[in-house]
Specification:
mainly beta; Flavocytochrome B2, Chain A, domain 1; Immunoglobulin-like; 5-stranded mixed β-sheet; 25% strand; MoCF_OxRdtse_dimer (chains A, B); membrane (chains A, B); molybdenum (chains A, B); nitrate reductase (NADPH) activity (chains A, B)
């Protein structure tokens, strides 16, 4: 019942949660992310008061917390109960108790209060008492105070609304943006009871930013190499050069796709976490994590998880505006998962699979996200659906579902619900707003589509691929391609691939009419790139449903000619065995070839003129023209059912930008550099209008921060 | 042991076979197809002589047959033993015993015999004694005679060679064209023993056509509506208007894909047919058809069979020359199959499925064709692999595998081996030359591909679709679309589809500047087609692996805009329930819409000038241009894994023309008719450069007779 007050390393304060587990009160401590304001508010030992709690599928009022210290930090334990699984999400409402903050407020002159004088004014400190544990939960919207006690039972989203109680509803509406509609404000208006006291308002007539709680305060720290699309909730992908450098994406670089905050379950108390399973007849059964591990055999499955929005950025650039996070090619990662088979657990829970009705298995996470899969997939041992607690030989990280997540190999990752708290076998699909991620339309000028609702949810994923690394010219000659010449890798050890590796001795080092590393800046640029300019490409290919990738084709000339890439035999390498009944992993591929001859601008201007873009048509089968200024690299994959990728994003365009699986195109253009301060020295270097290039680092600014369904 | 001598209806002769079944001699009688010469040769009662036979996986020499009649017709019982399954294929060698034929030979003057005088001459009548039942089998090639006794055991194709014994090898080499190579003739040269006597040679120094046996003599009669690609072996597809008129393709119109002749098993003796199963340990087990039916539960599975070459004709027209039968869109059909589960039979035969090695189930047909599927597919009850003896409620027709065939739903039809005689569970794929049907290359200018051998065999099929019916303008207004306005069909009974059916009252009957049915031929043509010109389309969509079709998209303007077609709910209709664990059937679709306005030639010339073709670009996303002269209709389908079809055949081009699954395009062009003798009367009618049009009858001459691997 006592929490530490200081983080041993950061000196940051620690927050505590009160939660219930089968009628027993438990306190979890949270290592709070250090932030500017919060850092100055130490949290003392917390005292529990009030009546004991029992578990339930509905939220119970939690007793209020009070500090035993005089320098109080009130912590709102906005606990959330899903079935028998319990968790506490922490919202720090303590900042205003910091004297410094209150002093600052005192210094600013309050605006005149011309609001309805018939309604009372409330101080934020008093509003905070009406938190999720209160019998009279209140919320703030703008400068108004609402008593939502009567509304909670009717709220379509359920008890999640209580997370906002005692504070502002606005950060939650930023997440659940469906609320940003007039009819929602009309509902809220019915519960208006007063206004925030002007003493707690800033110059703009609203509570200060510091006084608004941050639902993401307990999110874990992330690897700085991740390219972040949104901070809250965090959505981030690994940089391409890290994405598939190894067969298993390292845990800290595995792409992060969150709809909300990261629920907090303390590692030391994880054995008190429980999963609830509800069968069609209403019977429920609970399993602690320890029980799951003891009762069922541990299974390992090597599987990709991929967001339906992977490569959405591509669709936007090639076909038109799409709604949603503008993912690059990194909303996909591969890992070795460890857990127990869902089919084993469901059988143990008493599920009768003889039922022939088309049932669904609904997963619900601790943060309220949910999604479902067909029961036929769940109960088929060959589907390898796991309740996973391990990832790449380590415990599941918090960002990836600690302590337990579903892993549904071969399906869209939206089904692999993290922080799993409840499983319901039902005759309905999950009603989560994330359940349906359908194609809305094909073709940019298509109007509203009457068939939207009839489109099935995405489960199994179609075949896709991407180029994640490009090396050109000197990059190849100078041995900067990690897998070239490395006899230890699985590609080089494949004798049949030897012929595909460029013979470096045969690559001319003297460019036509141009001397590399020439310090004389008056030397004219060559008129074209040299013949046999070497290029090396790498990337991944993947298909859903456990269908193996059987071939990857590469074009260096925009689709005019094709050649097959080498498939890296990761699964047959002793160091990276693949677990599972089917081909759930990605297939990495490698390719080396020679670029077509391209023309260079006559001047030695270091930057390529924009007009050149028009010269670099991206037609699917451009006419064979000598001396184009740019060329388009393309990759496409084929799976064992001989399904292959669509040629263009226009052909599969949908306004949600889902399943952007068209051939992956990377346009590259040569340029003539003066050698001033450049790593490349003077000579022909390469860049692209798509921020790919030699060494292939995707630039972070290209990754736009756009949220789904704005 | 006695055969009838006359067919009761045709008066044609009957041939008999001697075969063995578990050591017992059985005679099968064959109703021979009446042909010009053979009709005049009655076959008398046959007498068996020689030693008794035992079954074996190698061919046993059969005792010779002799006629008890003085007017002898020798019948070569080129029996073929595959495991315990037995069958006789009939080759009529009797023609030369017909006195009329011999008389005709006598009338022609024999050419001078300037061949090697050191070798003997043989009469055909004597050569025929060295048939498949002889201990010294001989064959003829051109005018030479070979004793192949020593060669049989070494022959890579096995005992099949004995089918040719006693006669010419040439008709078999026409089927097994791999033999048309110098090294094969070198092998044969070793066994030369002499020449055909000049008395049996025609003016060209070769045996007359009549004296060469026809391996296809016992093929069944076929429905004349079938469009025939090759006669021997028969390869034929139903006309489009029949293909998917009903959900189940009628047996007599189901497409026919044969590699060889149709083996003959007499219906009355079918209970003596037996299937042999050989397990990995070499153990064998045999089942008669009666045993299969008695011992295992009968299952029904509704499933498509589709040739890997379906729509090859499309690939040829749009991407370049391909080798193989130039199938239209009809190398696919749908039927309800009845049989027993392969998984049940394999389990009964004692197969241990715990073996984790990647085993294969090899099927061999009575005519020597073979193909295999992975064991994992064979033993999974959800894969619904059948040993089928019924088709659409009737016994399996001879053309479709009577008495027993494999049906492997969701896979390429090449795996659904007909006339099934033997099943071998092995660690190897079938070595049949038809096993590998890989993409050879992508891109028309790709050279020989070193990865050919590494490409996996086609098993599961990718998603495809086709337009099988088009009605335009008056065809729609005049109610010639069978499914429009028919309240009994499953489409019209779907309320949501009502809005998609064109409101006929709203369709203008008066064309702009043009009076339909005007008898005044000087009336000028309109300059363009009317607005809202109605069009109706129908077709099918299908994906392998049991993946349901979830949407079908149609474009009427070459891909510029798209709309969804209605999916016909056949499987939910009480009259056409679908059997099986997954979606193995095709999905029929229907669409109505309005065509874009197109320009018409200024003259009223009835035929469209060829130059118009150039005006009708088939680019995937043509620029939006008003007043094009033609438009391209497109259909594409998406399956439940959201795999969709490639846009162009160029993108999946392979020289074998396999898996031609690109968007199906049908270009249509309006023309102005004078009304002279035309059914349409005077007005705007439609035709296409691809022989589709109003009413959509594919013209037979378009279907070229080309054989695979010429």
């Amino acid at each position: 019942m006592i929490c530490d007050t200081q983080h041993p390393h950061t000196g940051g304060s620690l927050h505590c949660a009160i939660v219930t587990l089968q009628g027993v009160l438990v306190i979890f401590a949270s290592k709070k992310m250090a932030t500017r304001v919060i850092r100055r508010i130490p949290v003392d030992i917390l005292r529990i008061r009030g009546r004991p709690l029992s578990t339930s599928s509905t939220l119970r009022r939690l007793p209020k917390l009070a500090s035993r210290s005089s320098r109080t930090a009130r912590v709102a334990p906005l606990s959330f109960f899903v079935g028998g699984g319990v968790i506490a999400s922490y919202l720090t409402l303590s900042q205003l108790n910091d004297p410094e903050i209150e002093d600052r407020h005192a210094e600013t002159s309050s605006p005149p209060d011309d609001r309805d004088p018939s309604l009372p004014r409330f101080r934020l400190a008093d509003i905070r008492k009406h938190d999720g544990s209160s019998s009279e939960p209140w919320v703030i919207y703008q400068d108004k105070v609402y008593d939502i006690t009567e509304w909670v039972a009717a709220h379509p989203g359920g008890d999640v609304i209580l997370r906002a109680a005692g504070g502002s509803i606005e950060p939650y509406w930023d997440i659940f943006s469906i609320h940003k509609a007039p009819h929602v404000r009309e509902v809220l208006q019915q519960y208006l009871i007063g206004y925030i006291d002007v003493a707690d308002l800033g110059a703009d007539g609203r509570p200060t930013a510091e006084s608004i709680e941050d639902p993401f305060i307990n999110d874990p720290a992330r690897d700085p190499r991740l390219i972040t699309h949104t901070l809250k909730p965090r959505n981030a992908e690994p940089p391409n050069e890290e994405l598939d450098r190894s067969f298993h994406t390292p845990n800290e670089l595995f792409y992060v796709r969150h709809h909300m905050w990261v629920p907090f379950v303390e590692e030391g108390r994880v054995d008190q976490y429980a999963l609830t399973i509800e069968l069609p007849d209403g019977e429920t059964k609970q399993y602690t994590l320890a029980e799951l591990k003891e009762r069922f055999p541990t299974q390992r499955v090597t599987a990709v998880l991929q967001c339906s929005g992977n490569r959405r950025n591509d669709m936007t650039r090639h076909a038109g505006k799409t709604n949603g996070l503008q993912w690059g090619v990194g909303a996909i990662s591969n890992a070795e998962w460890e857990g127990v088979r869902l089919s084993d657990v469901l059988a143990d829970a008493g599920l009768q699979t003889a039922n022939t009705a088309p049932l669904h298995v609904q997963f619900t996470g601790l943060e309220a996200y949910g999604a479902s899969i067909p029961l036929s997939k769940a109960v088929d041992p060959a589907s390898d659906v796991l309740l996973a607690f391990g990832m790449n030989g380590k415990p599941l990280p918090r960002d990836h579902g600690f302590p337990l997540r579903a892993v549904v190999p071969g399906n869209v990752a939206a089904r692999s619900v993290k922080w799993l708290s409840k499983i319901v076998v039902s005759d309905e699909e999950s009603t989560s707003q994330w359940q349906r991620r359908d194609y809305k339309s094909f073709g940019p000028n298509e109007g509203p589509n009457p068939n939207w609702d009839r489109a099935p949810s995405i489960q199994e994923m179609p075949v896709t691929s991407a180029i994640t690394g490009v090396w050109v010219g000197d990059c190849v000659r100078q041995g900067r391609v990690p897998w070239m010449g490395n006899s230890n890798n699985s590609l080089a050890s494949n004798p049949s691939s030897a012929s595909k590796i460029i013979d470096m001795a045969a690559v001319p080092n003297q460019r036509i009419g141009f001397t590399p590393k020439d310090s004389n800046s008056s030397t004219p640029c060559p008129t074209s790139t040299p013949a046999n300019e070497p290029i090396a490409l790498q990337g991944y290919a993947y298909s859903g449903g456990g269908r193996a990738i059987t071939r990857v084709d590469v074009s260096l000339d925009g689709g005019l000619t094709w050649d097959q890439a080498e498939l890296v035999k990761d699964c047959s390498s002793p160091s990276t065995p693949c677990y599972g009944s089917k081909s759930w992993s990605w297939t990495r591929w490698r390719y080396t070839g020679a670029l077509p001859i391209l023309s260079l601008p006559s001047s030695s201007a270091p930057s390529l003129p924009v007009a050149v873009k028009e010269d670099c048509e991206e037609g699917i089968f451009p006419r064979k023209e000598q001396q184009k200024r740019c060329t388009t690299l393309i990759v496409k994959a084929t799976d064992e059912a001989y399904n292959t990728q669509p040629e263009s994003h226009k052909g599969i365009y949908n306004v949600r930008g889902n399943l952007a699986t068209a051939w992956h195109r990377v346009k590259i253009c040569p340029k003539c550099t003066s050698g001033e301060g450049g790593v490349e020295g003077k000579g022909v270097t390469w860049n692209t209008g798509e921020t790919y290039g030699c060494g292939f680092r995707k630039e972070a600014e290209e990754v736009r921060e756009e949220m789904l369904r704005k």
